[in-house]
Each structure stands twice: as C-alpha cells, then as structure tokens.
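<instruction>
Derive structure tokens from the sequence

<record> Sequence and structure tokens follow
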Amino acid sequence: QVQLQESGPGLVKPSQTLSLTCTVSGGSITTSYYAWRWIRQPPGKGLEWTEVIDYDGSTYYSPSLKSRTSISRDTSKNQVSLQLSSVTPEDTAVYYCARDLHADYDYWGQGTQVTVSS
C-alpha cells in the first residue's frame, strides 16, 4: 500500500523560505502516470491545490504561488519536495501531499502543520 509522509519545520518566520518533504513508500514516484501534488488548507478555509510534479519530472505551478514556489524530487529517496519563499502569515496552513491520477487523489499524507509567525 502506498503511504505518504510529509515533514517540515512546523514554525517559520515571515520572509523566510519554507521547505517541505513528502516521503513516499509502497510505490515509486516515477511510476506512470501518477503525479504528486502539494495541497494546503489554511485555518478555517478550504483546500488549495498548489504545485504538482509528474512521474516524468514535469512540473506545474499554481498561478497564485508560481513566483514563490519550487517543486522538485529525489528519485533515489522517493521524495517530493516543495519550497515556498518569502512566506507570510497567510501561508499558515496544513500542508498535504497526495498522489494524483487524472484528478483522482487516491492517497494522501496525514499533513504537516506550518505556522508562519515571528
């Protein structure tokens, strides 16, 4: 069974860069035709789909975050990472990674809380 586990710093100061990692087990991040997406949920709000990286390494960025984000992968570790620069308190959220097959998100991590505060 596929499992996803997010990890991150928990607390980040404004203007810093947030780095998150999603470690995948039970399946390879290079398996056709899956994609791996980061999704966040700010407190009291709905889910916000952010960046995605395909099985072949292609990346797609959400228009709202494009200028501040970078998504990458380490196939040797079976990990997908997200970096978000110049964070503000509005980036406070639970960040999830999920497996995506044509908009069917069949596996999710438990999520990691990120708080942006000085």
